[in-house]
Specification:
The mean pLDDT is 90. This protein has one helix at residues 83-90, and strands spanning 2-9, 24-29, 44-52, 56-63, 68-74, 99-100, 111-117, 121-127, 134-139, 163-164, 171-172, 175-176, 182-190, 194-202, 208-217, 236-245, 252-257, 261-266, 271-275, 290-296, 299-307, 310-317, 334-336, 342-348, 352-359, 362-369, 384-391, 402-408, 412-419. The N and C termini lie close together (10 Å). The protein folds into 3 domains: 1-102, no CATH class; 106-253, no CATH class; 277-404, no CATH class. The chain is mainly β and 423 residues long. 2% of the residues lie in helices and 46% in strands. A hairpin with a 3-residue loop joins β13 (182-190) and β14. Pfam families: RCC1 (PF00415), RCC1_2 (PF13540). InterPro entries: RCC1/BLIP-II, Reg_chr_condens, Ub_ligase/GEF_domain.
C-alpha cells in the first residue's frame, strides 16, 4: 500500500509542495526532497498533521519505527520554518517541495508531538518520557504571536530563531506553576494571530488540573477579556494567560479558532464561544451535542446530532462566499444534511470547508465556500455555494483507493490517500 498527499489552492510561495509556484485548481501530488514526485519518504507510515499558515506549510510524519519527522515548504523568510530551511532557500533550493525541517534543539530527549501554524508563525510541541512537554515558537511576532513577550506590534521580529513559550508565571487557583512543573500539552490550535493551548499541569502541592491558556490578538475577547487600566480592550497579549480551568466532570477536549473568535468543545458535547459575534459566528446551539468543531475566519462549524443515528453539519457565521453551504446569501445558523452519508470529520480553511463523508459506497470528500485560488480542487475558481464532491473526482468511488485524512489552510486543501502500490 502507498500513501500520497494531494494539495490544491493558493501557491505563490510553493506552500502546496507540488513542485510549482502556480495556484493549483485541481489536486496534485506533493513532492518530497530526495523522493519520486508523489511518493512519501520511504519510512513514512502515517501523516499525523498538516499545518498551514499564510504561505508556509508544516507536515508531521510518523515512521514505521514510531519516530516522527518534521517536513516543510513555502515561505520561510520570517523564520517560521527554521534558520536552516531559509538558508537552503536563499542558496537557491526550491521552496515548492517538502524538505526536512532541522532545528537546533538542546536535547535529543524530545520527540515531536503536535504542530500548529498561524499567519507567519509556527508552533511545535515536544514530548519527553522523563520530563514535561515543551512548546517552542518560530517566526513572526506581529501581535505577540510567539508568546514570549516584548512584542511591539505588526511587523516586529525577535532575534531568537527558536523561542520557548513559558508558563511558570501563571497562577492556578492561587497556586503558582513552578519552573519544574510537570506539564502535558493535550492540544494546540491557532487562528490568524492568536493561540489556545489545553494542558494538564501538576502543581507543587500535588494538585493536578487542566487549564486552557491563550495569547496573541485579544481586542475582541478571543482569548478572554483582556483590558488595560482604563478598562479598554488590549489589542494583543504577548504571553500566555489562563482563560479557564477545566471542570473535571466536563473537560475541554478540543478547540478551534477563527480570526476574532474561539470555540471550545467539552466532553459532554457542550460548546463555549469567545470573541466577536459580528458575523453570527458564535450563534451556537447550547442544547445540541456536538461531535467536532471547526472554525473558518468568520464562521463556526460542527458535526452535530440532528436526530437518532443522524448527523449533520451545523454552520453559522459569514456567508459572503457560500461558506454556510446553503446556497449563498444566508443569515443565521443552519444545518447541512447529506442524504445517505455520515459526516465523519471536518477541516475548515480560511473561508472554505471540507468534510469527510462515509456512505455505503465508501469515503468521499465534499467541500464548499470560497474558492478564489482553486482551493476546493474542482477545476474552477468560482465559489461553491452548495456542497460539491471533490474527491474522488468523477462519478466513481475511487476503486481501491482509501481516503486517509483531510486538512485545510489559508486558501489550501489537503487530502491523504492510500492506494495499491503497483510500482
Amino acid at each position: 500500500m502507498a500513501r500520497t498527499l494531494l494539495s490544491s489552492g493558493s501557491n505563490a510561495h510553493g506552500q502546496l509542495g507540488n513542485g510549482s509556484l502556480e495556484d493549483a485548481h485541481t489536486f496534485h501530488p506533493c513532492h518530497f526532497l530526495g523522493y519520486e514526485p508523489g511518493k512519501l519518504p520511504s519510512e513514512a507510515s502515517k501523516i499525523l498533521n498538516v499545518a498551514s499558515g499564510a504561505n508556509h506549510t508544516l507536515l508531521l510524519l510518523e515512521r514505521t519505527d514510531g519516530e516522527r519527522e518534521l517536513w516543510g515548504c513555502g515561505d520561510g523568510r520570517a523564520g517560521q520554518l527554521g534558520l536552516k530551511y531559509q538558508e537552503s532557500i536563499s542558496a537557491g533550493c526550491s521552496s515548492s517541495v517538502f524538505r526536512p525541517i532541522e532545528l537546533d534543539l538542546d536535547s535529543e530527549d524530545y520527540s515531536y508531538k503536535f504542530i500548529s501554524a498561524s499567519w507567519e508563525t509556527t508552533y511545535i510541541v515536544l514530548a519527553s518520557e522523563s520530563r514535561g512537554d515543551i512548546l517552542i515558537s518560530l517566526g513572526a511576532d506581529d501581535f505577540g504571536d510567539l508568546g514570549v513577550g516584548n512584542a511591539k506590534g505588526k511587523g516586529k521580529r525577535v532575534a531568537n530563531p527558536i523561542n520557548i513559550v513559558r508558563f511558570d508565571h501563571l497562577v492556578v487557583d492561587g497556586h503558582s506553576l513552578p519552573p519544574s512543573c510537570a506539564m502535558t500539552i493535550n492540544s494546540i490550535t491557532s487562528g490568524q494571530h492568536h493561540v489556545l493551548v489545553h494542558m494538564d499541569v501538576s502543581l507543587s502541592d500535588g494538585l493536578n488540573c487542566g487549564i486552557i491558556v491563550g495569547w496573541g490578538t485579544s481586542r475582541h475577547g478571543q482569548i478572554g477579556g483582556v483590558a488595560n487600566s482604563d478598562g479598554k480592550p488590549l489589542p494583543f497579549f504577548p504571553v500566555p494567560r489562563i482563560i479557564s480551568v477545566d471542570d473535571p466532570n466536563d473537560p475541554v477536549v478540543s478547540s478551534s479558532l477563527g480570526i476574532q473568535h474561539s470555540v471550545l468543545l467539552r466532553s459532554s458535547g457542550r460548546v463555549t464561544g469567545m470573541g466577536s459575534n459580528k458575523k453570527g459566528q458564535l450563534e451556537l446551539i447550547p442544547q445540541s451535542r456536538f461531535r467536532q468543531v471547526g472554525c473558518t475566519w468568520n464562521g463556526t462549524y460542527a458535526i452535530v446530532e440532528v436526530e437518532e443515528s443522524k448527523l449533520g453539519i451545523y454552520a453559522t457565521g459569514s456567508d459572503s462566499h457560500g461558506q454556510l453551504g446553503r446556497g449563498g446569501g444566508q443569515i443565521g445558523p443552519g444545518i447541512v444534511i447529506f442524504d445517505d452519508a455520515i459526516p465523519k470529520f471536518l477541516a475548515c480553511g480560511s473561508e472554505h470547508v471540507l468534510t469527510l463523508l462515509q456512505s455505503d459506497l465508501g469515503k468521499e470528500v465534499w467541500g464548499w465556500g470560497w474558492n478564489e485560488h482553486g482551493n476546493l480542487g474542482i477545476g474552477t475558481t468560482e465559489d461553491a455555494l452548495l456542497p460539491v464532491k471533490i474527491w474522488p473526482p468523477g462519478e466513481g468511488n475511487g476503486g481501491e483507493e482509501v481516503i486517509d485524512g483531510i486538512w485545510a489552510g489559508s486558501g489550501t486543501s489537503w487530502i491523504s490517500i492510500i492506494s495499491d502500490d503497483v510500482g
